[in-house]
Amino acid sequence: MNIFRLAGDMTHLASVLVLLLKIHTIKSCAGVSLKTQELYVIVFATRYLDIFTSFVSIYNSLMKLIFLGSSFSIVWYMRYHKAVHRTYDREQDTFRHWFLMLPCILLALLIHEKFTFFEVMWTFSLYLEAVAILPQLVLLQRTRNIDNLTGQYIFLLGGYRGFYILNWIYRYFTEPHYVHWITWISGLVQTLLYADFFYYYFLSWKNNKKLQLPA
Amino acid sequence: DEDYFDHDEL
C-alpha cells in the first residue's frame, strides 16, 4: 500500500459518502444517473466475486464490503425510497445499460490475462467501470444545472481515478513484475472521460461561480 | 499456479 493508492481509495470512499449524504439527508437524487449507479453495482458485484475466496487484507475486504453495500443502497434509495425516487430525472436518464455492457462482455472474453471465470469477470468489471460514468456525464450535459454535491461527487470520483494512475506508476517503478496492461489502459480511458468535466469544474472554481456545462 | 488470482487492488 502506497500513499497514492490510499489517497485513491479515500477519495473513492469520500465520493460515495457525498452521494449518500445527498440522498440520505437531503432526500434528493436530482442530477444523479440511476443507470450509472446500477452499472457500478454490476462492476462491484463482478469484481468482488473473490471476496470469500481470496484474502489480501482486512482493509481490502472491508473496503470491498463498503463499496458493495453503498452501491446497492444508493440504487435501492433511487428506485424504492418514495421521496428520493420523486426527485429522479427519469426522462433525462435514458442511456441503455446493454449498449455499454455487451461490448465489455465481448471484450473481456477476448482480451484478458487468464481465461478463468474469476479473471474474465474481473476484467469485465474493469472495462465496465471505465465507461460506467458515461450515463452520468450525459445526464449532466442534458440537465446542465449541477448542484454542489453532485459536482463534488463526480470530482471526487475522477480524483480517485487520477490517484490510481499515480499508484500504478509508483508500483511499476518500485515492484518487480508489476505489469497490468488491461488495468492500466482501461483506467486511463476512464480517467480521460473525466477530462472535459474537470476542465469546467476548475473553470467554475477559479471564477468562484456555480458549475454550469456548456450546451 | 494457474488458478492463482493475484489482484490486490480494489
From TrEMBL, chain A:
GO terms for biological process: protein retention in ER lumen; protein transport; vesicle-mediated transport. Pfam families: ER_lumen_recept. It is found in: Endoplasmic reticulum membrane. It comes from the Eukaryota. GO terms for molecular function: ER retention sequence binding. Belongs to the ERD2 family. Keywords: Endoplasmic reticulum, ER-Golgi transport, Membrane, Protein transport, Receptor, Transmembrane, Transmembrane helix, Transport. The chain crosses the membrane at residues 55-77, 98-115, 121-140, 152-170, 182-202. This is ER lumen protein-retaining receptor. InterPro entries: ER_ret_rcpt. It is a multi-pass membrane protein. Coiled coil: none annotated. Its main location: endoplasmic reticulum. It comes from Eutrema salsugineum (Saltwater cress).
